[in-house]
Design goal:
The complex is a heterodimer.
Chain A lengths: L13 H8 L5 H13 L1 H23 L10 H22 E5 L6 E5 L3 H5 L3 H11 L8 E2 L3 H12 L14 E10 L2 E9 L5 E8 L9 E5 L2 E7 L3 E8 L4 H14 L4
Parallel strand pairs in A: 2-4
Antiparallel strand pairs in A: 1-2, 3-4, 4-5, 5-6, 6-9, 7-8, 8-9
Helix pairs in contact in A: 4-6
Chain B lengths: L4 H9 L2 H12 L2 H17 L10 H23 L8 H4 L3 H7 L1 H9 L3 H12 L4 H8 L3 H20 L11
Helix pairs in contact in B: 2-3, 2-4, 3-4, 4-9, 8-10, 9-10
The chains are: A alpha+beta, B mainly alpha.
Chain lengths: 262, 172
């Protein structure tokens, strides 16, 4: 077989052409592609256009480079995350002590304050919102898909029937829930999210003794907790302060839980 | 790690302008872009150990940013939200520069590409990342990266040279 110069050139593929446009071909291969293009004027034309567009785009992209705002400087981000972490830690430490149990036990919430202070004010609900609502890894143990299982699981622990509130008409999507343990006993947390990514919880647990049925509201460090009691249970809705959804969600849940038996 | 914290911060900071620009091409919305960059930066600061080779800091940062973008998109799709193509994409170019070169037109055309093609084209042609690095970053075979690149260029050419009228409409 005669070894003409043509037959020694590996065939030109689309990858070669892309690399040619991007100036990423080794020198000797570039000569091959150029020779090939000379024989394929149609392809040479489109490649030319692609190279022109590439140059225009790069010039346009250069013009998109802007000075970095102070809020995005690394030092500022470090400071902001350290402050947020400190704040979270302080509030968590003040209200609860967390112990993670192995296996299916889940989380245990324990009041570091005197136990009686959490029982009557539902501060455990506030802490639960702080700790779980915006947890990036696993805010819920069972997601919305397992709504039925979740309801019966929590119902078994808090010893009352659980009807998971449907708050979709007010723009709150149900994400799921989890079992928690508070001083007063097991508690159920149900998590919701609105379109602005703000998160809200409905929280329920048993309570001892007679507590006020009227709605009480506590605002503390960015969290608003609306809570009330009936004969044997405490209920709370918690979320970021100043959200109009808090009042509306509370109305719906109060109505729902008035109609059902303890 | 081989770097002091200060060197590390400086190395990250050098890439923030390009990250913002990439985020803008992904989200096509100035506010969402900056939120995305901030999230990615915070994630990169807390996951410093994840950077094994300091030479690849750029593709490491861009990979974090892109993964964030994808998870945001998935979340939004679950909620059925729609975002519009922001005017920031293209109108940011001073008019006098743009007149002769068609730069904002080129940016608008890129904004019209499907996300997968847009991302590959941007990382290769604008950010000068190697094909193999882009493949690794996106978790794709090299061949897929090359074909997305080729298809992206073809479509871009059709939009720009084909004289197609580029209308950016609000999706809502």
């Amino acid at each position: 077989m005669s070894a003409g110069s043509e037959s020694n050139i590996p065939p030109i593929g689309e990858d070669d052409l892309q690399a040619f446009i991007d100036g990423r071909l080794p020198l000797e291969r570039r000569a091959d592609v150029e020779a090939w293009l000379a024989a394929h004027p149609g392809k040479a034309h489109t490649l030319d256009a692609d190279r022109r567009i590439r140059a225009t785009l790069r010039a346009a992209a250069d013009a998109l480079i802007e000075p970095v705002p102070a809020s995005m400087r690394v030092a500022e981000l470090r400071r902001a995350t350290a402050v947020a972490r400190g704040r979270l830690w302080r509030s968590a430490a003040a209200a609860v002590m967390l112990i993670m149990l192995g296996g299916s036990g889940g989380w245990v919430l324990r009041a570091a304050l005197s136990p009686s202070s959490t029982v009557g004010t539902m501060t455990d609900a506030t802490s639960a919102w702080r700790i779980f609502a915006n947890d990036p890894f696993q805010p819920v143990e069972l997601n919305a898909e397992f709504q039925v299982q979740l309801a019966s699981w929590i119902a078994g622990h808090v010893r009352r029937s659980i009807d998971i509130p449907d708050l979709s008409e007010m723009g709150l999507r149900f994400l799921g829930g989890r079992l928690l343990s508070a001083d007063a006993g097991p508690a159920g947390l149900f998590l919701y999210e609105d379109a602005g990514k703000d998160r809200f919880i409905f929280y329920v647990r048993e309570t001892s003794g007679e507590r006020p049925k009227k709605l009480q509201i506590r605002v503390s460090q960015g969290v608003e907790t609306r809570f009330w009691f009936d004969g044997h249970h405490g209920y709370a809705i918690a979320g970021p302060t100043n959200s109009p959804r808090l009042a509306a969600a509370t109305d719906i849940v109060r109505r729902l839980y008035q109609g059902t038996k303890d | 790690m081989l770097w002091s914290k200060r060197e590390h911060d400086a190395a990250i900071e050098a890439h923030i302008p390009a990250m913002r620009r990439f985020a803008l091409t992904l989200t096509r919305d100035r506010h969402r872009a900056d939120d995305l960059v901030q999230d990615a930066l915070v994630a990169s600061l807390s996951n410093w150990a994840g950077l094994r080779n300091p030479d690849s800091i750029k593709s490491w940062l861009f990979a974090i940013l892109y993964r964030r973008f994808l998870s945001d998109v998935r979340r939004e799709q679950g909620r059925g939200e729609h975002y519009s193509i922001d005017e920031a994409m293209g109108l940011a170019i001073p008019p006098e520069q743009d007149e002769k070169l068609g730069q904002s037109e080129a940016l608008r055309a890129v904004a019209l590409l499907p996300e997968d093609q847009r991302t590959v084209l941007w990382l290769v042609a604008i950010e000068d990342l190697a094909y193999a690095d882009v493949a690794k970053m996106l978790g794709l075979p090299l061949g897929t990266v090359m074909s997305r690149l080729a298809r992206g260029r073809e479509r871009l050419r059709a939009i720009l040279e084909g004289g197609a009228v580029i209308a950016i409409r609000k999706t809502k």
